[in-house]
């Protein structure tokens, strides 16, 4: 049984009803409908903190989904879960894969920057300033890309770039 059919939350039920209506109206193939159903189930499971179930639904959604734009969001959400689970290498892999299909995902650049910044901070704690600098520089590059895509967002990153890197964004 699809997760959306067993969820008791009013907002989730409303979303599911609207999504089902749209699936019936918008001309889509059965494979596209299948991918969307898995994606929707993954989002619902993720919102409830059921990450293993969400990952399974997202992986299933990648099989029939051919549209690169839609696929990029599935891959991005897989990256989010790996980030939440502390699996930063896997998260970075999925963010990269999402950006290969859709280079206009500032949130993916931001999350990659956050991971790099974290790794830089960890390197400082371990006394490895050289590695810390490499991670810090990589974080700066990702934040610059995120800010370039959405100039009014990521104020903290903008301030960090200005203070630590002496970088002034227009």
Automatic annotation (TrEMBL):
Pfam families associated with the record: TPR_1
The organism's place on the tree of life at top rank: Eukaryota
Native source species: Eleocharis cellulosa
Name of the protein in its database record: Photosystem I assembly protein Ycf3
InterPro entries: PSI_Ycf3_assembly (IPR022818), TPR-like_helical_dom_sf (IPR011990), TPR_rpt (IPR019734), Ycf3/AcsC/BcsC/TPR_MFPF (IPR051685)
Main location: plastid
Membrane-topology annotation of the record: Peripheral membrane protein
Keywords, ordered alphabetically: Chloroplast, Membrane, Photosynthesis, Plastid, Repeat, Thylakoid, TPR repeat
Subcellular location per the Swiss-Prot or TrEMBL entry: Plastid membrane; Plastid, Chloroplast thylakoid membrane
Repeat positions for TPR: 35-68, 72-105, 72-105, 120-153
GO cellular component, one term: chloroplast thylakoid membrane
PANTHER family in UniProt: CELLULOSE SYNTHASE OPERON PROTEIN C, TPR REPEAT-CONTAINING PROTEIN MJ0263
PROSITE patterns noted in UniProt: TPR, TPR_REGION
Family from the record: Belongs to the Ycf3 family.
One of the GO biological process terms: photosynthesis
Role noted for this protein: Seems to be required for the assembly of the photosystem I complex.
HAMAP family documented for this protein: Ycf3
């Amino acid at each position: 049984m699809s997760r959306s059919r067993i969820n008791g939350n009013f907002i989730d039920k409303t979303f599911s009803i609207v999504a089902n209506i749209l699936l019936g109206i918008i001309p889509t193939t059965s494979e596209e409908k299948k991918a969307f159903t898995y994606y929707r189930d993954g989002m619902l499971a993720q919102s409830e903190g059921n990450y293993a179930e969400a990952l399974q639904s997202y992986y299933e959604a990648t099989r029939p989904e051919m549209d690169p734009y839609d696929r990029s969001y599935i891959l991005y959400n897989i990256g989010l879960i790996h980030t939440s689970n502390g699996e930063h290498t896997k998260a970075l892999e999925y963010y990269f894969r999402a950006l290969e299909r859709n280079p206009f995902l500032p949130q993916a650049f931001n999350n990659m920057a956050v991971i790099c910044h974290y790794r830089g901070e960890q390197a400082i704690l371990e006394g490895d300033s050289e590695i810390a600098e490499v991670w810090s520089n990589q974080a700066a590059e990702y934040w610059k890309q995120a800010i370039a895509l959405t100039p009014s967002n990521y104020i903290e990153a903008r301030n960090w770039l200005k203070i630590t890197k002496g970088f002034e964004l227009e």
